[in-house]
């Protein structure tokens, strides 16, 4: 018996189709069964017209009733077929073993022994590969070691096993963000909020907002880069002074470059004396003190001494 979940879904659709054909349910429920068939086929991404071919290939043409016939014998046959194709049987003993391995992995994570955690989660997955939690936990361990590509693969496996498991998307979002892919991270975090709805925690919302801001910053940078590059070319490789002064005193105090220059001048008194002895700067100070408003920036920037001084203060280090 094949363990592919899509094949099992096709087996269920085949059963529902047979039920409709043999009229084993009232006509009142036929429409509901057809809706169920469409939903299953869409969710597991297969064409409902190919159900017969899938059952023939994966189950030797046997339908669900045939595979389950004879309670004890049928269970033994299913187990034998699962062993033949190396698919673990989800019995109580297997689940208990897998959970024990997961617990050991969790213990290793708490001790920050991430390599051991990966080993234990891997053993849990090998014992029971149909549990999305094990993949998500291993993704967290990989991320802790900054092995983000592997974390992405495990997060995607968790989502494949259980598309409604929000932590799978959360692990995917974290790894994508760490890889410098904020748009993919934003999509994953958005899925977390969609799944959790009103149950979404503050941490989940913060993750989404962080990725959103990063995407917005990237978009703003793309928009401003051409103009910014042109401005820097026009000003000899350092920022346009008018942009530094255009925001008034508040703009100056909030500008990191101006604050850095001020700090440098405080550490070097001679630099401050040189600045204040410059005729263009003295003119600017006189004009401000007399209430004449801001000086013409083009006149300031055309002063060679001031341009050299500004270049030393604000230019690339």
What does this structure look like?
It is a single chain. The chain has 317 residues and is mainly alpha-helical. The chain has 3 domains: 5-84, Immunoglobulin FC, subunit C (Single alpha-helices involved in coiled-coils or other helix-helix interfaces, Up-down Bundle), CATH 1.20.5; 92-215, Alpha Horseshoe (Serine Threonine Protein Phosphatase 5, Tetratricopeptide repeat); 245-314, no CATH class. The protein contains 19 helices and no strands. The protein has helices at residues 5-21, 30-43, 51-59, 64-68, 71-84, 92-110, 114-127, 132-144, 148-161, 166-178, 182-196, 202-234, 241-245, 248-254, 256-267, 269-277, 279-289, 297-301, 304-314. The protein is elongated. It starts with a helix and ends with a helix. Mean pLDDT is 76; it is low at 70-75, 77-87 and 231-252.
Q: Determine the CATH superfamily of the largest domain.
A: Tetratricopeptide repeat domain
In the CATH hierarchy, the third-tier topology of the largest domain is known as Serine Threonine Protein Phosphatase 5, Tetratricopeptide repeat
Count the DSSP helices.
19
Q: How does the helix and strand content classify structurally? A: mainly alpha
Rg, nearest Å: 33 Å
Q: What is the percentage of strand-forming residues?
A: under 5%
Mean pLDDT: 76
- Low-confidence stretches are 70-75, 77-87, 231-252
Strands, total number: 0
The CATH first-level class of the largest domain comes to Mainly Alpha
CA(first)-CA(last) distance: 67 Å
Order of helices and strands: HHHHHHHHHHHHHHHHHHH
- Main β sheet profile: none
What general form does the structure show? elongated
Assembly status: single chain
The name of the CATH architecture of the largest domain is: Alpha Horseshoe
